[in-house]
Structure formats: structure tokens, C-alpha cells
What does this fold into?
Amino acid sequence: MGWFVQRKTVRKGPQPLVLEGLRAESETEAARQERLVATTTASRAAKRLKRLPVFRASASDQPRGAASDRFTDARLALSLAFTPAQPVIDPALFAGRSDTLTTLIRSIEDQRLHVIAYGERGIGKTSLIHVLSQAAREARYLVSYTSCGADSAFDEAIRAVANDIPLIFHKDYGPSSPEGERGDTLADLLGPAPLSVRQATDALTKVTGTRLLMVLDEFDRVESSEFRLSIAELIKGLSDRASRVQVMIAGVARNLTELVDHVPSIQRNILALPVFRMTDVEVRELIQIGEERSDLRFEEAARNAIVTAANGLPYLASLLSHHAGLEAVSQSRLDVTVADVDASISRALVEQRRRISKDVLGRIGTSMDEGGGAALAGLSNLAQLAGGAFDVDELASAWPGRPEGAVRTRTLVERLVAEHVLLERTHATCGVTYRFADDGLPIYLWLLAAQSRLRERVPRARGETGRGVSTAISST
Ligand SMILES: Nc1ncnc2c1ncn2[C@@H]1O[C@H](COP(=O)(O)OP(=O)(O)OP(=O)(O)O)[C@@H](O)[C@H]1O
Ligand SMILES: [Mg+2]
It folds into this structure.
């Protein structure tokens, strides 16, 4: 070993080794050695780099490199056609909901109502708002969109809206005023002191020559009851003064009062819009839109499997369609089979499982082994429909005409609550409610049940595809 020494030359990156005996030779030979070592080091580094995964599409959504083929294109198109991690922004990708949109538009333009849209998580509220906003902008409305957070405050929300209102639309300024020409906004007129509801109403009532839609999305995340009360008072003030500003609120809730306090005072001024689960026809349309965009073909059995597993939730429909399409493309196919849908559920389960603790996963496993799968699936559906917390009466309604199912589930619920692992019980003023210990559990349990139902109905779903199919249930 002493035959080898490390060179003292300071260089960046890995230090090459050279033979000591060669030091005495001519400069040219030493330089040649150095070049050889450098070349070897560089080629090793290049090989290592090649092993690292790379982005397959550029930031401008173009396939990268010369090796673009129909599968690379399909993969890219799929990620643009189904966007489970993002709301739909492009109206061309928006499926169904045309009655809901019509109701919204008519209420806003014919009745000048403010809107409160509510529904379960992932039902499509934000997508609906984006598509409505687009339609409003086409009708020359100004739209100011705010995604609320836990610490949202009234003053900050009003200033954000005011910033979106150019002074050319202000009664006291107008398009020919120097301030209007300069591009000043309503926000420039507001002093530094925190705004009261009255001051905000006064300022917004000055809007003229246009109409403004003030959108407050994710309103359920707001923690301040003062903020909620101020918004209710603002709605009342804007309505009473026939302002050209309309408020649109959206958030997770199973009823209106859960989302906005003080509803009685504004009852006549608002459209309360529950956003329901999609019909099967609408979920089919969602799949078809993605299919047309991506050049993939979903077999009829694959469509049916997605429709059943999605259970009217656009989030699940989009997620499973996306994963199933990717599964087909990864096997150099453009036709999506029921086996791809099975694999897509497995993949979704693996993703969900990362967010759930080992204890909880273990308890689910034993419940399934004891035959509690159907009861857990029913409970997960109830929890999703109720936006998290469900009550005992809803337990019975989940098994219409099958009292034994309700009794079995009630027993399971009591046992799970006593164990403090899967379910929690809360005693509230409105009665006893139950909630899963983790927000990701309802979707996880639903997908588990959907996969086992799919495999019962279509046995060929299992095993036809090579990867990942059987991992999800067996490892829980
Ligand atoms: N009408 C639709 N057509 C196609 N895809 C939709 C539609 N509505 C929703 N989606 C898809 O469903 C998923 C959830 O949608 P969105 O974010 O709008 O729901 P949300 O109700 O606002 O969710 P959250 O409660 O988490 O705020 C997204 O992936 C979106 O792409
Ligand atoms: Mg949303």
C-alpha cells in the first residue's frame, strides 16, 4: 500500500491517486498522467450523474431531449390533463357542474346575491370558483381572489382586495384623473390604521363602472371569530348600500352555519350553495376530458372501476385516472385497463400510507382480518361526507334496511374509541360526534375497500399488471 501516495495538489472534487514511481519522469508524462486521471474522474462523475433521475419535461411543458416519442408525449399530456394536486384552472378541463355554475351566475348577476359555497374536502370548490371567476372576468368583472389561512385578518383581507381595484373605477377619481392614469389603486387611499367594517364598506361602495367579485376561499381555515363576524357585517353593509362589490366565500363544511356565523342577519342577501359529489356521468366526463387531452384510451371496464372507486369525488377520479394512465404508459401502452386502475389504487394507497402512523396501520390490518372492512369503509364514507366529524344517527342511516350492519358497526365504533387508536369521540353541545384520528384515514380506508371490491368483481384486475398491485393491503 505504501507504493501509493495521495497527490498534494489542491483540487476541487474527489482527489485522484497516482503512482509515486512516475514522479521522476518527464513533465510531459506527468501531465499526461494528470489528464488521464482527470478524464477518469470526470467520466466516473458523469456516470454517477447519469444514474440520477431527471425531469422528463421542461418548465415550458415540452418533452426534453431528442428521445421524444408518443409515450413521452402521453406522459406529459397526462400530467396536464389530470391535476389531482391542484384545482382546475382551465375551463376546458372542468367537468360537469354546469347546473351549479348556472345557478351561481344567475344569483350573482340577476339577484346580486353574495355567495357561500360549502362542501366536503376535495369536492371541487376551488375549481368551481376559478371557472366562475374566469366567466366573470370575461364579462369584465374585476375578481379579487384570496386563499384564507388560520391567521387571516379583516384589515389585511380588505387591503388585498383594495389593491386589486384601480382608481379608474372609483367614483371620486375615474379614468381621466392623474391618480387613475398613474395606476393607483383603492389601497393607496386607505390610511395606516386598521380598518373598521364601516370604513371598508364605505371604501368598497365607491366602486363604479365595473363590478367586483371578492373571493375568500378556504374560509374554514380562518380561526378568528372576529374576522368571520366582520365579513358577515360587510356582506350586510354592501347589500344595504347596493354596492357593486359581491363577496363569494368557499370552504369545507357540511352546513352553512358551520362556515359562517351570524347567518340570520344576512340570510336574505346570500346564496347558500352546497357543492355535492359528482354524478357518475360527471366523473365519466372528467375521465373523457383527460382521455382526449392525453391520447390515451380508457377501456370501459377501467372507466367503470374509476367511477366506482371515486365515489363522486373529483379528487379521487383525477388521482386514479392519472396514476392508471401513467401505469399504462410505463408499460408502453396507450390503452388503460382495469389492471392499471388496480395498480393506481395501490399507488394511491402507498402515498396515503406514508402519512399514517404505524400503530394506526396495524389496527386497520387487524380490523380487516377480523372482517371489519365493510364497516370501516362505511365509516370512512360518513366521515368524508360530514367533512370529518360524524354523529351516531348518521351511523344508522349508512345501512338503510340493514339494521344488523348498523349494530355491528356501532359495536366496532365503541371498541375503536376505547382503544384510542383509530377513532376519537367528542362530546359537543350538539351531541356526541366521532372523528378518525388522522385526516387522511377516511380516504385511505375508502381506497382499501374500493380495491378489494374491484378485485372481487374483476378478478383479472389482480396480477395482470406486474407492479405494486398486491402490496397495499398485504402490508397494512
Ligand atoms: N369539475 C371538475 N372537473 C375536473 N376535475 C375537478 C373538478 N373539480 C375538482 N376537480 C379535481 O378535484 C381535485 C380537488 O379540487 P379542488 O381543489 O377544487 O377541491 P376543493 O373542494 O377546493 O378542495 P379543498 O376542500 O381541499 O379546498 C383537484 O385535483 C381538481 O383537479
Ligand atoms: Mg379548495
Observations:
- The longest strand covers residues 245-252.
- The chain is about 50% helix and 10% strand.
- The pocket of magnesium ion (ligand 2) is lined by residues 125-126, 217-218 (CB under 6 Å).
- Residues 17 and 454 are 60 Å apart (CA to CA).
